[in-house]
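Sample 3 of the quickstart, ligand glycyl-adenosine-5'-phosphate:
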Amino acid sequence: MEPTPGKVNMEKIVSLCRRRGFIFPSSEIYGGLSSCWDYGPLGVELKHNIKQAWWQAVVQERDDVVGLDASILMHPQTWEASGHLQGFADSLVECKSCHLRWRVDDLGDSNCPACGGELTEPRLFNLMFKTFMGPIEDAASVVYLRPETAQGIFVNFENVLNTTRKKLPFGIAQIGKAFRNEITTGNFIFRTREFEQMEIEYFVKPGTDKEWFDYWTEERLNWYVKLGIRRENLQLRQHAKEELAHYARECYDIDYLFPMGWSELEGVANRGDFDLVQHASYSGKNLDYFDEETKERFIPYIIEPSAGVDRSVLAFLCDAYDEESAEGEIRVLLHLHPNLAPIKVAILPLSRRERLVEVAKQIYADLRQCWMAQYDDAQSIGRRYRRQDEIGTPFCVTIDFQSLEDEQITIRERDSMRQIRVPISELRTTLAAKLGGEDLFVLPPGGQIWKE
Ligand code: GAP
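Result:
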C-alpha cells in the first residue's frame, strides 16, 4: 500500500513523535534546550534498528569492511591536521543593535532580519565545540568535541591495517556522536548541534577511486530503497566545485524529499589522499600502504559515504507516514519496514478475562524472547489496533475465547489489515517468516485465512 503524497508535514511528524514517545524536546521541564532532542522508548528502538540495519549491510555482510568505535575527544592536533581548526567555519555577521548573529549565506539584504539594525562586517566562526581536559582551563588543555566521526578512523588506519591484515580495497565503519556549533538549526531533528553519524572510510588504490566512488553512491542509495524509502523521494545531487568541503575532490549528496523540500540525507565524498597525507605529516608517522603484489608503496585514496542517523530517522518516519479512512475514521499508520519497526508484534487478548489474559501473557513471554513485543489489554480491540498502526507495529496477535478451545490465535497485518488464524504452536515460526517478508496468506500447517 502506497502512502499518498501530501499527507505528511513536519507538524504531524513532530506531534506523532511526541504523542507516542518517539522524540521529546531535551530537558523539557526546564523549557527545553534549543535544537537538542531526546529519543523516547520508541524512538530509541527505531534509531537502534536503523543503526543495526546499516551495520549489518556494511560490516556484517561484507568481507572488506570492519568496525571501529573511537573516542569523541581526540588529540587536538587531529583538528589541525584535518583542516577543521582553519577551515571548518561559517561566515557570520552580527547585528550592532540586537547582537543576533546571522550566516552570510542566509541573508537576503544587508540589514538585520530581526530588528533591521546595521550589521558588522563578516567574520569566520568555527563550528567546533571547545572544552577543557583536566582541572586547568588554559590553552594547553583545550580539546574539541569531534565534528565528524571520520577522523577517529583515519588516525586508526595503521592500527586496523596491522591487526586485521586487510588488503586494499577495504573499509572501516563507525557509528557515533558528532557535534557542531551550527548557527542555523531547525526542522526538528534535521539540523542539530549534537547528532549521530554512520560513516565508512573506504581505502582504495589511487586510480580506482572513481569506480569505487560510483559503487558506494549506488550501494548507499539502494540501502534506503531496500528499507522502504520510495525511490522517487531520493535523488543524487553533485556538489559544484565551490561547494566542495576542503578535503573533497568530488561529492554527491543523497537527498531526500523532506517536508521542507529536497535536503541532504547522506554525502558520498572522494577525499583523495588528503587526510592520510595530513596525518602522516602532523604525526610524523608513516601512513603508506605497501602493495605486496606490485611491490608499490602509496597513500591510499579514501571514498567516504557519510550518513546522518537522525536524518535517517526523520526520512524513514516521513516516508512511512500515512493516513487513510477506515471504518468511518482516519487511520494513521507508519508503513515502517519490519526490520525498522520499534515493536515487531503486539499481543492483544480480546478481553481481560482471567483465562484469556493467562494465555496471552504466556504468548507475550514467549515472543519477547525473539522480538520487541508489547502487551495491551486496554480499551476496544479496534483502538488497540489503531495504537499499533500509528507506531508501525507490523503484526498484532489476538487471543479470543475460541483460542481457549482450539489453541489458535489470529495474526493481523498492519498495512492490509488482512488476518490469518494459526495454531499457537506455529506462531513463532510464522511470525519469523512474515517479518522476513513472506506473504501473509502463505499458511503454516493448520493455518487458515481469517479476513481478506
Ligand atoms: N565526514 C564527512 C561529513 O561529516 P557532512 O556532509 O558534513 O560530511 C555527513 O555530514 C552527514 O552527517 C550529513 O549528510 C547529515 O546526514 C549528517 N549531519 C551533518 N550535520 C548535521 C547536523 N547539524 N545535524 C544533523 N545531522 C547532520
